[in-house]
Specification:
Strand order of the largest sheet: 2-3-6-1-7
Number of strands: 9
Number of helices: 19
Order of helices and strands: HHHEHEHHEHEEEHHEHEHHEHHHHHHH
Shape: globular
Structural class: alpha/beta
Length: 380
């Protein structure tokens, strides 16, 4: 019997570790199953676990799964190393003594002490400042910490779980991350697959995410089979976090409606509201029971093309879902797509494409050269 089979057979109340993991982590793709098997083995040890994966893949869910399947009775305490200013992070982790710095009017226990008997999850450890990395290494090796301003060694008993979307190998090479700390935390690495790598999980994830919103049947949108297919074909650069955002967006734009593949492409993935005709139909259904409605000419509802473009404010909450954005690359990709589309719509006539883009013809030609967009055309 292998390790996984042994873990599967373990049961205090008829529920194996893998059964518990299936409740915590959705999906049955080969990649997800492999990850669950590794989590099951890791959870039964006290060694430090390192969770690696892109932003939005659910590294925090994996950390919770490791803790809940372990033998630790204490709490899971989470610290996002990228979200706390470096000058405050040391006190947050290790605590401080009264009077150790301005404002320290009383003794405070840090997250290490708070998680003793349980697990400490250091999210985005790749962003931890170098000076603090040395103190973390000492805490891991000695199983003890010292509060800021203190001299007493305080013993700790916890499972350390770390996570990052950074390439720690490269950060070690560049000197931004200590090699000895990397080797110390890289005992049991768990690679969380991107959503694009486990596309077969998307239908079940969609159902689970939709169910988690606890919507009434009257406002719960219905994804058609072709809509589910469209979801599985998307590359999902934002991973599960992006999928969750799309599901919530569907509930707002299509409450109680049937969602097709066209809706997925045009309205949900591209941050575009339904067309005027679709909105009119929806408004008519919503106001069918009202009286005294005056007919409105279609022309009164048509506004400028700019009104249907993604609004700049759509990006306002970007950093609520993602840690960073390559702004130059993103704007370049947008330019390329729009230029190519304008050329296609005008049969590669640069002058007409420039008019559609509200650019000078010479400016468009310069951009085409810059982005290596070549077409058979007469630019005279």
């Amino acid at each position: 019997m292998n390790v996984v089979d042994k873990l599967s057979s373990q049961s205090a109340q008829g529920t194996s570790i893998l059964d518990k993991l299936n409740d915590l982590i959705d999906g049955d793709s080969p990649e997800t199953k492999s990850m669950k098997n590794l989590i099951a083995m890791v959870s039964q040890t006290d060694s430090t676990a390192l969770i690696l994966g892109e932003t939005g893949t659910g590294k925090d869910i994996v950390a919770q799964a490791i803790h809940k399947c372990s033998k630790k009775k204490g709490a899971l305490v989470t610290v996002n190393c990228a979200a706390i200013p470096s000058e405050l992070l040391e006190s947050e982790l290790f605590g401080h003594e009264k009077g150790s710095f301005t404002g320290a009017d009383k003794q405070r226990k840090g997250r290490f002490e708070q998680s003793s008997g349980g697990s400490l999850f250091l999210d985005e450890i790749g962003d931890m400042p170098l000076p603090l990395q040395a103190k973390l290494l000492r805490a891991i090796e000695s199983r003890s910490i010292q509060r800021v301003g203190g001299a007493e060694d305080i013993k700790i008993d916890l499972r350390l779980i770390c996570a990052t979307h950074r390439d720690l190998d490269k950060k070690v090479e560049s000197g931004e991350f200590r090699a000895d700390l990397f080797f110390r935390i890289n005992v049991l690495p768990i690679n969380v697959p991107s959503l694009a790598e486990r596309r077969t999980d998307i239908p079940s994830l969609q159902e689970k995410l939709l169910a988690s919103l606890n919507l009434e049947d009257a406002v719960r949108p219905i994804f058609t089979p072709d809509a589910i297919t469209a979801l599985t074909k998307h590359n999902w650069p934002g991973n599960v976090r992006e999928l969750k955002n799309v599901i919530e967006r569907a509930c707002i734009i299509f409450p109680g409606k049937e969602i097709t593949s066209s809706n997925v492409y045009e309205n949900l993935l591209r941050l575009k509201v339904p067309s005027v005709a679709e909105e009119q139909d929806a408004l008519w259904e919503m106001t069918a029971d009202l009286s005294g409605i005056t007919n409105i000419d279609d022309n009164d509802l048509v506004s400028s093309p700019e009104d249907y473009l993604p609004h700049p404010k759509n990006y306002k909450n970007w950093f609520s879902f993602y840690d960073e954005i390559d702004l130059r690359r993103h704007l370049q990709d947008v330019e390329i797509v729009l230029i190519e589309e304008a050329l296609e719509k005008t049969n590669n006539k640069v002058a007409l494409a420039a008019d559609k883009l509200k650019l000078r013809r010479t400016t468009l030609i310069e951009k085409m050269k810059k982005y290596s967009i070549n077409v058979n055309q007469n630019i005279s």
